[in-house]
Amino acid sequence: MSIMASNPVLRLHNKRLNLQEQSHQMDNLPHDVLLSILSRLPISSLIQFRYVCRSWRLLAQHPQVLDLHNSVHDHHNFRCLIFHCDYPIRNQLYFVDLPDFRDEKLSVKRIFTPFSATMSEYDVVGSCHGFLCLSDSLYNDKLFIYNPFTRDYLELPKTKEFSNPDVVCGVGFHPQTKQFKVLTIVYARGFRRIQRRFSHSEVQIFTLGSSNWRSIGKLYHHLAQGQPQAVVNGRLHWVSLPPRHHLGRAIVSFDLETEQFIDIPKPDLGSLSRNNYHLVILNGCLSAAVYCTYGKMEIWVMKEYGVKESWVKSFNIGTYMPKALKQEAEIPFKVSKIVLRGRIVRVLCILKTGEILLEYRNRALVLFHPNTGKFKDVAFEGMPHWFQTVVHFGSLNRIDTMF
């Protein structure tokens, strides 16, 4: 055995020399070529690049690199998957770069949450412009805006206090006004669940860079907690719960610029007019995944935003049982809020290949190919057994640049 192979100090010294040599080679590249290379790295690779040495960290933080990275990956529809798990070890976040699903060796990585000491249990209530919005799931008294890749975070000021409230949250960034806003819809719990009197709701809004929340009135729709928001055209969207003695559900939108609520028109006929459904953005269009009988699903797409006649039934998804659901598992219904609020099937996104990524019962990911009607189970090494999947557009944006 050689001296170098047996001496850990020499091996470490040799590794440092190799890194220094690589750093010098990078310095010899033309500046515009170097920026172009860095702008095309996945967000996780760019984060690792920053920790190699001081010169690489400064290079990765160059404003031009950040601008190019955002523009390149917006154009190529760059996304990652974030998994929120609250069982058995409560409230962990993991992520994986959204792959082409031909690489079976990918593993998830844990995301550090620097505020876990002050908010140990939370809900992921939204993802927008590279940031997550996390709310306290125990007391509803804390809200954080957090970039999981830069670890930059901000605790928002306290909202107006209510007695035992139910809170629906939303977060969005308007591309024209360049304002990042957080919305809370607060219901008095007794009136909301028993009498269904919506006059006891209050809508509050916070604009990043301001110091206080503003009350902007009431919402006369009954929104369910825990449903994912859909953000498109500078508007947030939710599905309302049906009024008493009615089957229909409304699609409620909130305009981030005018700060007004508007009902989105739906077709008068078809499953979207009467069945339960959830909202998702597919190829930049507002879409509704409708639950049908025997575990089947339809996906309706609004081809032209705001136009009632543009709703088209674009996909039919048949019944499928993922392998993970066939295996016995400890059921954490008593302790996991994610599982309690989960759906049988949830549409996550559509890939460049045209395949649709689905989440089944917070336990399995599945690819569905509309052209063939075939399903494919997806698993990553280190995935939690129970999870909520968030499709996240990663970025290196800092909170102080959003003011």
Automatic annotation (TrEMBL):
<dbReference type="InterPro" id="IPR017451">
    <property type="entry name" value="F-box-assoc_interact_dom"/>
</dbReference>
<dbReference type="Pfam" id="PF12937">
    <property type="entry name" value="F-box-like"/>
</dbReference>
<dbReference type="InterPro" id="IPR013187">
    <property type="entry name" value="F-box-assoc_dom_typ3"/>
</dbReference>
<feature type="domain" description="F-box">
    <location>
        <begin position="23"/>
        <end position="69"/>
    </location>
</feature>
<dbReference type="InterPro" id="IPR001810">
    <property type="entry name" value="F-box_dom"/>
</dbReference>
<protein>
    <submittedName>
        <fullName>F-box protein At3g07870</fullName>
    </submittedName>
</protein>
<dbReference type="Pfam" id="PF08268">
    <property type="entry name" value="FBA_3"/>
</dbReference>
<dbReference type="InterPro" id="IPR050796">
    <property type="entry name" value="SCF_F-box_component"/>
</dbReference>
<dbReference type="InterPro" id="IPR036047">
    <property type="entry name" value="F-box-like_dom_sf"/>
</dbReference>
